[in-house]
Amino acid sequence: METAAHATASGTWLLGGDLPVNRIGFGAMRLPQRGEALVENAVPMDRDRAIAVLRKAVDLGVNHIDTAAFYFSPLRSANELINSALGGPYPDDLVIATKVGPARDAAGAWSDHARTPAALRAQVEENLRQLGRDRLDVVNLRIVGTDSIADRFGALAELRRAGLIRHLGLSNVTPDQLAEAQTIAPVVCVQNMYGIGVRPEYEEFVRHCGEQGVAFVPFYAIAAAGRQAGATATEDAEVLAVAESHGASPAQVRIAWTLHQGPHLLAIPGTGDPAHLAANVAAGALRLTPEDLTRLHRAHQNSTVRGDGRG
After folding, report:
1. Which member of 56, 146, 281, 296 has the lowest number of beta carbons within 10 Å of its beta carbon?
2. pTM for this one?
């Protein structure tokens, strides 16, 4: 399909009731390195290329960027690349969402999640410093496990009241954890692993978020089982057939399917390749037919991809 589309073709969503974002955004996880993300000794991305990708994203109408302080390679930090490329000053309409909870040491090895108010505040302050901002637009609390999140979410709610955070979201959570958080402070978005063939059991949860006005922001919607390594698996035959009928790529079909799941779905495909970026944005203009959606729903239901992803 044509790859000159603008992000506005994907439609818009009012995040938190006051932040209008185009539904095609950009995920920064792949930006600091080439190849697999979130690993030690990753090969750093060329700095000029990474900055060019970010600037091109904004030129194409992307105004929602997802990032985290733990997105880094030995020489590159996603947050600092974003700051260098787009800060000084940032575009007025740019919304930057980050996340806290996971932690990596300076060498890139994973360490214990932040669980105390002090540890979570330190992560919030590190995101502020790296991004060069006085307040974070959205902070998602990233969870592993199904235990209570009240203390952790409550600590972030306190930082929101103090003015360091505008809106709060959740990542990798269950419906019960969302309900628990909502008794403490408003939740504007849920980031969970979801896509064609990925966690079909979450369909009801996705609809439930929409009914409450909570944005649903899937991660690994293109990569699926490949997760942080990227789209490494053999593509589903139904996805390939739909892609061929539209003259589109399988990745574009996966993005379009995401957006067709409801007006509250926000796509955040990530890449370090300018051509892939343009193609991802163009997917927001791809209109799937009822027959396409039937085929893709069949592919979705037949999958067994489940479980946690770090992104």
Report:
1. 146
2. 0.93
CA pseudo-torsion sign 24, 30, 34, 36: negative
DSSP-assigned letter for residue 285? G
Cα–Cα distance for residue pair 109/309, rounded to 1 Å: 16
Q: What angle do CA 157, 160, 163 make, to 5 degrees?
A: 160
pLDDT for position 231: 52
Query: Would you say the C-alpha torsion 255, 243, 223, 50 has a positive or negative sign?
Result: negative
- Block residue for tokens 């009241």: 161
Residue 142 to residue 18: CA distance in whole angstroms: 23
**Interatomic CA distance for residues 9 and 267, integer angstroms:** 13
DSSP state of 272: S
Place of tokens 């409550």: 154
- Give catalytic residues, as residue numbers: 71
Decide: helix, strand or coil at residue 65. Answer: strand
- CA 218 to CA 261: how far, in whole Å? 11
* Percentage of the chain modeled with pLDDT above 70: 93
Cβ contact 171:130 at 8 Å = no
